[in-house]
Specification:
globular, seven-stranded parallel sheet, alpha/beta, Rossmann fold
Amino acid sequence: MPLLFTYDVLTSLAAAPGVAYLAARPKHRPLLGRFAPRRPDTVGQRPIWLQACSVGEVNAARPILEAMAARWPDVPLLLTTSTISGKQQAETLSFPVTWFPFDHRLCVRRFLDRIQPRMLVLLETEVWPNAIRMTRQAGIPVAVLNGRISDEHYPGYWRLRRFWRPVFADLSAACVQNEEYAERMRALGAPPDAVHVTGCTKFEGVRTEFPETQINALREAMGIPRNCPVVVFGSVHTADIPLAVQCWAHLRDHCPDLRLVLVPRHIERTGRVCAAFDEPLLLRSETLKGRAPAGERVLVVDVMGELCAFYALASIAVICDSFRPKDDGHNPLESAALGIPTVFGPYMSSVIDPVTALLSNGGALEVTSEALPETLRELLDAPERRERLASNGRAAVSANRGAVGRSLALLERFLDSG
């Protein structure tokens, strides 16, 4: 308890400077809403409260929310999120959305009084001390779903295990992705009988097809002839831009009809992407305003929510934020489930279970940044190899589904007690 008291003191001391910092920066000012999240008008009484941090977790939350709605049609649902991009993505779903409160006692208490949830479900590593402690003190069950503690973060948790043990001990249930994560949860204080290996829910959070009419319309809007090869760099971070430029220099003359599509992870960094290329580019936002393509071969998707649609028309998908030691990757299942040959780098720690499933089934390629340009060239020249990758990737996704159903079956016993 003394350590938790220290945490409360530190969060209290940080509150006023935090408000001042956010208020002074228009870009971050919407985050002030986390100090007093409003109750959405559309949420019913005593909802299940599901917390998903940012864009990736929100995408993973969609099939979980849909399964909850189908399994418990009379139980209201509420989705909260912690980042601006996450909230924007969450608002595209058909569920009530609001901010996750800052983990300060007063913020959490006011939110609990306002929402009065019947259960709190935290996705992946959203383990917040005050949110968990105060929710349990109110007699409300708290569960972790799709839980994981990565190789990168576990040493930090372990060094502060005296602080974390009472937090993990308050969990009513922890549905985790694999046995290694289960052992880490137990070591950090989660009740052994509360920890269950249910698998990775991300296998169910991905689309397996898009209507052909939608893909054809997208091709036409972006000026991509039907038989042109397309390489899509998905979730491009600033540090990925030089690698994309290098790959394009290696491929553009070898494949004269090739199109390169770049989808920035953060839309506000589109300018940096465009500045790296010394040729005309076509922005997706411009085509949505009526601009006609003029033969551009480098295309930039500067709008939210269209990454998977562009994956669906790709010949090869490259998963960015995975080629440098500080990277931790993005979800490779979004392209693999669509039957798109998928390539990523060696640094994919945030999605290790999907990566393991794909690689063990021959459904994706892991390459270094140095090898990426030539690997892409070889794949473009080998349609049979691309077809094998596509088929194996889809099979791996199909074989690993079922985690959502197993998790909800374990949570069901808490509905009446919450």
